[in-house]
Amino acid sequence: MSLDMHLKAAACLWACTSAASPADSPSRIVSADLCADAYVFALADRDAVAAVSWQAGQTVSAAPDWALDLPRANGEAERLLALEPDLVVFGPSGAGDAARFLGRAGIEHVSLQWGEDWSGVIVNLRAMGEALGEAERAEVLVLTLEDRRTALARRAEQRNRQPSVFYLSVTGGAAGAGTLVDEAIRMAGGRNAAADAGASGWLAADAEWAFRVDPDLIVTSYFIDGYATRNNTGAQHSAFRRLLANRPRIDVPAAVWSCAGPALMDAAEQIAEALDQLEQGA
User: Fold this and answer.
1) Domain count, the chain
2) pLDDT per residue over 30-57, tens digit each?
3) What's the chain's average pLDDT?
4) pLDDT tens digits for range 148-205
5) Which of 107, 211, 225, 243 is least crowded, fewest Cβ atoms below 10 Å from its Cβ?
6) What is the pLDDT of residue 241?
7) Helix-helix angle 118-132:135-157, to 10 degrees
8) Residue 230 belongs to a domain with what CATH number?
9) What are 109-161's pLDDT values in tens digits?
10) Among the three residues 70, 88, 112, which one is the final residue of a domain in this structure?
11) Do both 73 and 171 map to the same domain?
């Protein structure tokens, strides 16, 4: 029997067995993506989570301890059907080919909207709250996060100036305007040095950035807790090493902003704390 026929048979079986027991809220939620994990962990009851993404437990994941023993999921239809979910949550890349098999089985699925700004996080929180049957919990979280964002703005107003911040990843990449890093820097009350230099989007490794910017603070990430990589230009290139040696620096944990999720606020607050210390030191 072909894989496609196996999937059709599994979809039919699951549709038949699950149709008799509808529920107001999903009780077997499967997260198929690292970005989806962040929203599921923030909003779902742990007893309702049946599986988490294959990246849970890696250094780029903020999975809580209770999630580490759960089965792992990915975007493959056969794996998802085997987990017998009543809701599958995908990241911004969507369900892909799995959508038709999930639909055939009567399994609901929802995907995050793509976005790297704070408004996108709020939109996704509310949408996920509706999908998970946790709209009230999502709204409470939104209000809490917005209060924290207001507090960041007040802290920024109390500083004498708006410091320049440069982001450097272990690969030597930087982040210009329109990235989640840029959003966190601006939420913290800083100026993105790369954006000020005219850059937008995610930037490939280029040691010339060490000479183009004169930041007050350097934010590094993935230096000690990121993806395994042989490309460590950001850590090893002499120009970047000199820049790092001569500027205040903080390292934001990779799990905080592997995707634009609620934890982006944590990154902004960490940057704001460093900017406050710069102000006090000045």
Assistant:
1) 2
2) 999 999 999 999 999 999 999 999 999 8
3) 88
4) 999 999 999 999 999 999 999 888 889 999 999 999 999 999 999 999 999 999 998 8
5) 211
6) 84
7) 160
8) 3.40.50.1980
9) 999 999 999 999 999 999 999 999 999 999 999 999 999 999 999 999 999 99
10) 112
11) no
Residue 219 reports pLDDT greater than 80 = yes
Q: Name the residue range of residue 99's domain.
A: 3-112
- The answer on 169 and 84 residing in a single domain is no
pTM score, whole prediction? 0.87
Residue 71 domain flag: yes
